[in-house]
Amino acid sequence: MAEQVVKIRAASTAEPVAEPAPASAHGAELARNAGTPLKPEWFDNARVNLSAVDRRAATLMTRRTVKKEWQAAWLLKAITLIDLTTLAGDDTEERVARLCAKARHPLRDDLVEALGLDFELKVGAVCVYPTMVPTAVRSLKGSGIPVASVATGFPTGLMPLRLRLEEIRYAVEEGADEIDIVITRAHVLEQNWQALYDEIAQMREACGKAHLKAILATGDLKTLRNVYKASMVAMQAGADFIKTSTGKEDVNATLPVGLVMVRAIRDYRELAGFDVGFKPAGGIRTAKDALAWLTLMKEELGNEWLQPDLFRLGASGVLGDISRQLEHFVTGRYSSADRHAVA
Fold this sequence. Notes:
The protein is α/β, with parallel strands linked by helices. Helices cover about 40% and strands about 10% of the residues. It has a seven-stranded parallel beta sheet, with helices on one face.
């Protein structure tokens, strides 16, 4: 097979982003990524043009913008893509239950009425630690909102593999629909692709019917070439989603890293024929940040990826700012942040 070369450069033309697909609830169920045997020839000779990546990422929000009712529509779409998350050491069942109530009703009733929404607005998923999965499952019963659980020694992943696999099985048995795993960064830094592939493949098997979201912890991987290669190996091993970060690294989701990862998704689709989802996480704090990520997905992968089955935002805190922006659209005034508490 011919060598795969990643060439990322500033695009001269791109599809307009002024008219997004209408915000909606969950789309059709994602077909699983069956994976492939490890194929180093798909990524070994990959090259990434750093200056072109930075230039492309920097111009995402300067060449086109969305305003007024179109911006409101995009922000509503962003809400449906959020993985509402609590991963704190002092999590309680009550806190998780409140978070799930917010997931069911992410906007105040007066804003829903003022916006004239004719669909049930809800977030993409709720993500918790394994021990909190039963509480989330009970709280979300009948809502159609998936329960995601981190596992495999989150956030470092530095536990024996057998214990990481057992944690996955425990979370699935408790009712988790999705498992967010963390990879062993050392495998990437040492270019040990077989070890990385085998690890993720075993995690995929342990997930059973639950979807696997592979966290690459890109802030620890040092180079964009490593990010591309790790993305490709994770997808070959059967990951249903690839995710930028745990949110605990010094550097989390950035647009240049996201661009490299979605280009890997695009290449994998062409080579293997499977669609893989993408989730940026960490550092996404404002409505403007959310719009930038939606713009990236639309321009690089198209409207098909602006659905929760193929795109998630790991950014619970952004919901408050989106709510403030929507209230400003309705009333012309900004309210204080405490009127839009996440839970």
